[in-house]
Design brief:
Radius of gyration: 24 Å
Largest sheet: 11 strands, mixed
Structural class: alpha+beta
Distance between the termini: 20 Å
Order of helices and strands: HHHHHEEEHEHEEEHEHEEEEHEEE
Number of strands: 15
Shape: globular
Strand content: 25-35%
Number of helices: 10
Helix content: 25-40%
Length: 361
């Protein structure tokens, strides 16, 4: 059965409700180009993945749909670089792909769905900033947003509480420069700058946060480690492994977090103009790439997409110089954090591949 046939498209587009479903959105009239790109990828990959992709991409369950989207996107990316799909095995499934030089790799594609939409959160953040800028006070302050804000945020109670605090500051009834506002949905911290607003200057000096990189790593790291453990315990533990983490929203992960998780802390950082390289000597703490148990782990692909650009993917790779079967930058064709071959100790830096934005299909 062809992927998203006209019959399926007609059925899904007429289905009442389910507007949150990715499958229904793709089957809408303005999703025609995305459907064409998906079909193009599935045709390029061929069997045995096309049957699985047809099943997953027809599902109203967003988790199943996006898993199918993630798998065909990553495999299609590799096929464009000369790789070949060699098979699907077992639950998951375990995908086998062959590098152009004939080396067989196991490919694990992990899909991640965000519960919140960053676009909406940015709008909510701006509503909070606008409200705090209207505080009737000359005392300037900074606000730290500890976590993403709820979409239905009413910033007025926060503004009124802040005004009461600043009144206490002005009357001398408050000692110190810090205050916090917390309820079941919000966690904010305020700090006085020690300056007074001049003229029409806003009392809000600036807003920081929310910081999502640490939370994203708390989700990504255990998923990757579980996949590594599954590979080590499986029948193909000696086969080199490439893991792809595909998100429906921008990852927003600091590269420092990824380096610490995968490589450990560098012994030296060298700055050359606008670029930097990192030297890694003796192991400083646990890290995935240098763990002898995970010596088959050849690299991690980080893939995401911008909701406003449905026809593009963004991808970059972090490659393991200590792997039994290392990957080269040219193997993946994307921006990669890698070391020149035979560099000892590994001298890692970012190498430009095809660019961050990759056309879907």
């Amino acid at each position: 059965m062809p992927l998203l046939s006209e019959r399926i498209v007609a059925q899904l587009s007429r289905m009442p409700g389910s507007d949150h479903s990715f499958a229904k959105q793709v089957c809408a009239p303005d999703g025609a180009e995305v459907r064409d790109r998906l079909r193009m990828m599935v045709e390029r990959i061929g069997e045995p993945m096309s049957t699985r992709a047809t099943d997953l991409l027809s599902s109203l369950d967003n988790r199943r749909f996006f898993q199918g989207f993630a798998e065909i996107s990553v495999v299609s990316m590799l096929v464009r670089q000369g790789w070949r799909l060699s098979g699907l095995h077992g639950a998951g499934p375990r995908i086998e792909v062959t590098r152009p030089d004939g080396t067989l790799f196991s490919l694990s594609v992990l899909s991640f769905l965000h519960q919140t939409r960053p676009g909406g959160d940015e709008q909510t953040r701006q509503r909070l900033v606008d409200a705090l800028s209207r505080v009737a006070s000359k005392h300037r302050f900074v606000v730290l947003i500890r976590r993403w804000l709820p979409h239905d945020l009413d910033p007025e109670p926060v503004r009124r509480s802040l005004e009461l605090w600043l009144q206490q500051v002005g009357s001398g009834a408050w000692e110190g420069r810090y205050a916090a506002y917390e309820d079941e949905k919000l966690s904010l911290e305020f700090c006085l700058t020690g300056e007074k607003a001049r003229g029409r200057q806003s009392p809000l000096a600036f807003a920081l946060g929310p910081f999502v990189a640490h939370r994203a790593m708390e989700v990504l790291e255990p998923r990757v480690v579980r996949e590594l453990d599954r590979h080590v315990a499986g029948p193909c533990r000696d086969m080199p492994l490439l893991v792809a983490a595909v998100s429906d929203q921008p990852w927003c992960i600091n590269h420092g977090y990824l380096r610490d998780f995968l490589y450990g802390r560098p012994t030296m950082t060298l700055h050359e103009g606008t670029s930097s390289s990192f030297l890694f000597g003796g192991q400083d703490g646990p890290c995935a790439f240098r763990d002898p148990l995970y010596s088959a782990f050849s690299g991690l692909l980080i893939v995401d997409r911008e909701p406003a650009r449905p026809l593009e993917l963004r991808a970059e790779a972090l490659l393991n110089p200590w792997a039994k079967v290392p990957l080269a930058v040219s193997d993946l064709g994307v921006r990669a954090f890698a070391s020149p071959r035979d560099a000892a100790p590994p001298d890692l830096r970012w190498y430009v591949g095809a660019g961050e934005a990759l056309p879907l299909g």
